[in-house]
Design a protein that fits this description.
disordered N terminus, 45% strand, elongated, 18 strands, 5-stranded antiparallel sheet
Length: 206
C-alpha cells in the first residue's frame, strides 16, 4: 500500500494474478490489473474484497457503483380491460449499466449481479370503476409477483400506486412491471410530466 502525492489517495499494490507478492503479510491489499479484482491476504490465501450476496461469485472492482437505472413513459399507454399487461417504456432518465434497451423496451436487464431495490410508480387515468393491480416480476414469471399493490380507482384525478421490492438478481436476469385494471374498458397509464409512470432499479449490495 502506498500514498500517492499526485493522486492524493491510497494505492494498493499493483500486480497481475500471476505476479502476486510471494511473501505477503496479513491484511496486505493488491489490485490485479488482468482481472480487475481487489484482493487481500487473510493469512492463508488471497481473498476477494467484493463478492455476490451468496458469497459464490467474486466481483471485480469495476462493478462498484454500477447497477442503477430509471426509465419512464413519455406518453399514455392504453391498458385493456381485465388482462395482465407488461408495461413498455419510452426513455431512460439515467442508466449507468446499460440496463435498458429501446429494442427490448419492456424490461431492465441486470448486468451487474447483486441485491437491488426495485420500484415502480404507476399513474392511472381517472376512473372510479373497478380495481387496479400492479407488481414487479422477474424473468417473465407473472406468477411470482413482487411488491404487488391492489386497490380501487379514483373518479376525480389520477390514481397512483407505488410498488417496491428488494431482489437478489444475477447477471442476465430481467425485471418488468405488470399491471391489471378492471374499469370495463381501456384505461390509460399516464406519461405526463406531472404524473409520470416510472420504473427504477438500484444496486445496494453485491
Amino acid at each position: 500500500m502506498a500514498i500517492s502525492s499526485s493522486a492524493s489517495g491510497l494505492r494498493p499494490g499493483v500486480c497481475t494474478s500471476t505476479t502476486r507478492p510471494t511473501a505477503p503479510y496479513t491484511g496486505q491489499l493488491i489490485y490485479e490489473t488482468d482481472t480487475g479484482y481487489l484482493r487481500v491476504w487473510d493469512g492463508a490465501a488471497w481473498d476477494y474484497l467484493s463478492k455476490s450476496q451468496d458469497g459464490t461469485t467474486n466481483l471485480p472492482v469495476t462493478n462498484i457503483g454500477k447497477g442503477a437505472a430509471s426509465i419512464y413513459r413519455t406518453s399514455a399507454l392504453a391498458i385493456g380491460n381485465a388482462s395482465d399487461v407488461v408495461v413498455t417504456w419510452s426513455s431512460s432518465e439515467f442508466d449507468n449499466d446499460s440496463m435498458w434497451n429501446a429494442s427490448a423496451n419492456d424490461r431492465l436487464t441486470i448486468n451487474t449481479p447483486g441485491v437491488y431495490v426495485v420500484t415502480a410508480g404507476i399513474a392511472w387515468a381517472s376512473s372510479g370503476t373497478g380495481e387496479r393491480i400492479s407488481w414487479i416480476q422477474k424473468n417473465g414469471n407473472a406468477g411470482d409477483r413482487w411488491g404487488m399493490v391492489r386497490g380501487g380507482g379514483w373518479s376525480t384525478g389520477e390514481t397512483i400506486y407505488n410498488c417496491a421490492a428488494i431482489m437478489s438478481l444475477s447477471a442476465s436476469d430481467y425485471i418488468q412491471v405488470g399491471v391489471y385494471q378492471a374499469s370495463g374498458g381501456n384505461l390509460n397509464l399516464n406519461g405526463s410530466s406531472t404524473a409520470r409512470t416510472r420504473f427504477s432499479a438500484t444496486r445496494i449490495a453485491p
